[in-house]
């Protein structure tokens, strides 16, 4: 399976396909996720919001405007209305007919064979999203990360703490920008409920990566856009590299 592959002969770093293989296919669609697996990514990253009728769906923006044929807020449309929109055409005519996936469809297609990194997007705008996602994982017996390979991440720490209370066996990731400001005191607090700190690449030092790891957490860096950036982060000891192009990281493996 994709999960069994390695990049550099060790388990590190994992290739995390950011919104799927979103350089090659429309982001956050089944096409992008299948492409990621085909390209050998170890993990699929995806973004989750709730529809008007409370269904978890996979889309990055708060509005459907940029990535679909429709207009309006995800929170203002029912699941049925969202499913009528085309989520592939904006990217390339060959992807016409792609739909906004439900989280259920992604889980039922890829878990637990392929690891998923699920981001809760702006969870405060979607009251009940933690309960909805927790319920879906629980009813599929995917709430134990050791066997499901699922990690849930967000910028919103209180939302993640809520989720961790609902699902104590689930691995949690904290998204951060400016990770260089993190100090041991804060890291120790975060480590009480989180397993990953996932920082943006800008200004991220080897020292900070090591400090996070010394506090018992892993580091998945985003958003890696070139082989040079990937090589620097691998050298710095990152556990995972989030990228829209899983391919270039594989091309590095012989040089590591
Ligand atoms: O996974 C990290 C990254 O996804 C956060 O940024 O905007 O791509 O969701 P964004
Ligand atoms: Ca994301």
Description:
With 256 residues, the protein is α/β, with parallel strands linked by helices. It has one domain (2-255): Alpha-Beta Barrel (TIM Barrel), CATH 3.20.20. It contains 10 helices and 9 strands. It has an 8-stranded parallel barrel, surrounded by 5 helices. β1, α1 (30-38) and β2 form a beta-alpha-beta unit. The protein is globular and about 50 Å long. The model is unreliable at 1-9 (pLDDT under 50). The chain binds SN-glycerol-3-phosphate and calcium ion (CA). Calcium ion is lined by residues 45, 47, 119. Keywords: Signal.
Oligomerization state:
single chain
Count of alpha/pi helices: 10
According to CATH, what is the class?
Alpha Beta
Structural class estimated from helices and strands: alpha/beta
Percent in helix: 25-40%
Secondary-structure element sequence?
EHEEHHEHHEHEHEHEHEH
Percent strand equals 15-25%
For the sheet with most strands, the description reads: 8 strands, parallel, barrel
GO molecular function, one term: phosphoric diester hydrolase activity
GO biological process, one term: lipid metabolic process
Protein name: Glycerophosphodiester phosphodiesterase
InterPro entries: GP_PDE_dom (IPR030395), PLC-like_Pdiesterase_TIM-brl (IPR017946)
């Amino acid at each position: 399976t994709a999960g069994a592959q390695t990049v550099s002969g060790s388990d590190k770093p994992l290739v995390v396909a950011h919104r799927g293989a979103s350089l090659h296919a429309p982001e956050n669609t089944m096409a992008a996720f299948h492409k990621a697996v085909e390209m050998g990514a170890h993990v699929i990253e995806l973004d989750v919001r709730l529809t008007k009728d409370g269904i978890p769906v996979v889309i990055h923006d708060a509005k459907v405007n940029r990535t679909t044929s429709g207009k309006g807020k995800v929170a203002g449309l029912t699941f049925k209305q969202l499913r009528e929109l085309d989520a592939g055409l904006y990217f390339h005519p060959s992807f016409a007919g792609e739909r906004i996936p439900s989280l259920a469809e992604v889980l039922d297609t890829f878990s637990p064979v392929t690891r998923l990194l699920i981001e809760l997007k702006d969870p405060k705008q979607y009251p009940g999203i933690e309960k909805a996602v927790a319920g879906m994982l629980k009813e599929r017996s995917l709430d134990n990360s050791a066997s499901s390979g699922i990690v849930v991440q967000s910028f919103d720490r209180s939302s993640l703490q809520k989720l961790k209370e609902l699902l104590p066996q689930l691995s949690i990731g904290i998204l951060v920008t400016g990770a260089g400001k993190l100090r041991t005191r804060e890291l120790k607090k975060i480590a009480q409920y989180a397993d990953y700190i996932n920082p943006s690449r800008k200004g991220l030092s080897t020292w900070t990566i090591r400090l996070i790891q010394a506090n018992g957490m892993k580091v998945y860096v985003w958003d890696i856009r070139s082989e040079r950036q990937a090589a620097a982060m691998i050298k710095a000891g990152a556990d995972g590299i989030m990228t829209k192009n899983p391919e270039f990281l594989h091309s590095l493996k012989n040089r590591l």
